[in-house]
């Protein structure tokens, strides 16, 4: 009787707890994405967070950004994987092939075959599982456990086909069709209390705790084993687990996941006793799940018969409906007691909603009379208004009542300064509705403004601010009766805004904030102009461009428009901005129609192009879904012969190909790839880097995980990189040291050669300087001699000029003297004649004596000697040379020669010689004979040229 009661309650529970309407986000990776075979038989994750898949083409590696495939030696299908954290080796089992992948010296993931060349003591066959216990590797094929140690393979037969095996807390459990055994040493020992499992096919063995083991059967449900007795446990999935063919299973936290052959995956939430069902209709690429594994972030990876899928099981985001229940593109949502209203482009729907448990029903029901586009939902004074493409509706239960006279409504809002009046904007302009006799009716169609808008707010003075696309920002002043516009004002650059467009209207408390092309602005009622809203602008280092926001009930700000998706969490009088956690939502939003609702204090709903997404606020705040993988430098590559060549690699923060490395100078252009694997939302992971020895400061944080450096100078460098999830203050950091060797022309030998060349060059330079100095000295000496010669010539010229002047003076003095003396002589002659008449003998004698002395003075004056000296100086020793060549010349002859050299005529010479002109001519005749001149030779010309 008790058994029947238990079965009956279980059936009721299964009927009462349907599949949840919310569903984890599923991400698909097709074979074209990862570039390998269709089937994926096993999943593993290393210590650094990198995911590996056993694929038909080999081992597929994924770090969240990049896919790579590595074949095994015989290129057969890889069936199993095992990451040994102690050795950082990735073991792979294939068909008659077993080995491991590890980093070679260059940093490339290389495969080492352990079966090739070793005596395996028999065929390895298909290796389905790999374990490590006490340093010994345990391999499971179809019917054997094979131990590998120190290069030797030892086979132990289970006696029949092995359905499943698992290493549970240091115990290798093996399940066959007839029993559950524990492999110990060299034998299989039946585990007590497992007789109930005989004849049941075990597909997975899980251990959520040290005290409990779960045996997952193919068609008989779940059995719990406490190391003493196995018993079947009841869940809301029993009907599914006994009707579907289960192929694999996994457990993480409160979730147990079941992979089926024909119907995708079922995920049981053991805490809430609800489950998710995800298949090809609701997001999977294929309904056959061959393998599954929860990663370090507690999210689920599925190896499918065709592709790889990722289920963000621990994500703060859940999709509201699976694709089989899609109600259209989401536009508005509103919680209403025990139901949730959802407005889409196909109409208005309602689903059950348990706010306390956070459970949303899976069966959306359409509100009658509301097909087509829903623009907005709002509750005013206990009444739900639905703004629809066909008008304004009042929602009562599961029906909708239309307010007559209104065509196509964008939005309605309650006026705070005019009680009982609701202002709306339709395709025809603004209008008001009011409640009369318990019924809402159209009150006034406001005149004076033909523009419509879905973005308007009332300010503290009762004026209406609205933004009209392509027209700009306006402020309306309504009449007291609210039937017309008494004043309409335009606000743009004329009022201090940075532009005339994109001035969106937002509400922050009781204040109106305008988002513009350059941050946020507000109206200054004193000046009548716009001023920056510093309380919001101060949140950002770069001011957002035309990004509107919505304030949550708790005072947080949600920025979800344009190119930005962020949350500013209020912390007393300030905000902490998270601009990364929801960054990926940009590709899912409906531009210009972003709406957010808060069904519970710890969650919110965003409308998307395929429905709605529900978010857990606490998970976003804490980032609790992320494991500490740590950042590591995955590889450093250089260009070699037109291809990338890896010179350094790592696959975790502690597993690298070497501590540092050196590169020739010709490989001084590097590409550095770094990663902190995070698969749920890789855009939330940002990186900052610095190359010590080159960069002066850390870079700004960004989502890029590749950095290139070109033409680095030779020297020693340290590349440092740190990662940060979302806006977390904590950072993970790693670094690598490397050296770029000097070029051949910068090597030690080159510098020695340079030193020799420099010494020789210095020597030659010194020699050149010395020779140049000598040339300069000689030139200076020559110049000095030249200047001395010039000075001498100048002196000689001066002396010559002086001598010429003396010679001319002497000649003139001589000429004047002789003339005077001749006149005296003539006077004396005259006196003598006079004295003779008087017979004054004495006087006569005296005068005659004086006459003779004068005559002697004329003929023997010493002035000639001085004249001769000066003449030889002026005319280059002329008289001396003439005397040497013609020694027969007398003093008188020389005088005539000198006077002729000077160009004097016979008439000029006569008084100088105290002779008559005739006597001079006779003297010239005698001179010609002494000079032995021919009659044809002119005496004056001869003497001039001598």
From TrEMBL:
<dbReference type="GO" id="GO:0003677">
    <property type="term" value="F:DNA binding"/>
</dbReference>
<keyword id="KW-0597">Phosphoprotein</keyword>
<feature type="transmembrane region" description="Helical">
    <location>
        <begin position="744"/>
        <end position="766"/>
    </location>
</feature>
<dbReference type="InterPro" id="IPR011110">
    <property type="entry name" value="Reg_prop"/>
</dbReference>
<dbReference type="InterPro" id="IPR000792">
    <property type="entry name" value="Tscrpt_reg_LuxR_C"/>
</dbReference>
<feature type="domain" description="HTH luxR-type">
    <location>
        <begin position="903"/>
        <end position="930"/>
    </location>
</feature>
<dbReference type="InterPro" id="IPR016032">
    <property type="entry name" value="Sig_transdc_resp-reg_C-effctor"/>
</dbReference>
<dbReference type="GO" id="GO:0006355">
    <property type="term" value="P:regulation of DNA-templated transcription"/>
</dbReference>
<dbReference type="InterPro" id="IPR011123">
    <property type="entry name" value="Y_Y_Y"/>
</dbReference>
<dbReference type="GO" id="GO:0000155">
    <property type="term" value="F:phosphorelay sensor kinase activity"/>
</dbReference>
<feature type="signal peptide">
    <location>
        <begin position="1"/>
        <end position="21"/>
    </location>
</feature>
<keyword id="KW-0812">Transmembrane</keyword>
<dbReference type="InterPro" id="IPR013783">
    <property type="entry name" value="Ig-like_fold"/>
</dbReference>
<keyword id="KW-1133">Transmembrane helix</keyword>
<keyword id="KW-0472">Membrane</keyword>
<dbReference type="InterPro" id="IPR036388">
    <property type="entry name" value="WH-like_DNA-bd_sf"/>
</dbReference>
<protein>
    <recommendedName>
        <fullName>HTH luxR-type domain-containing protein</fullName>
    </recommendedName>
</protein>
<dbReference type="Pfam" id="PF07495">
    <property type="entry name" value="Y_Y_Y"/>
</dbReference>
<keyword id="KW-0732">Signal</keyword>
<dbReference type="Pfam" id="PF07494">
    <property type="entry name" value="Reg_prop"/>
</dbReference>
<dbReference type="InterPro" id="IPR015943">
    <property type="entry name" value="WD40/YVTN_repeat-like_dom_sf"/>
</dbReference>
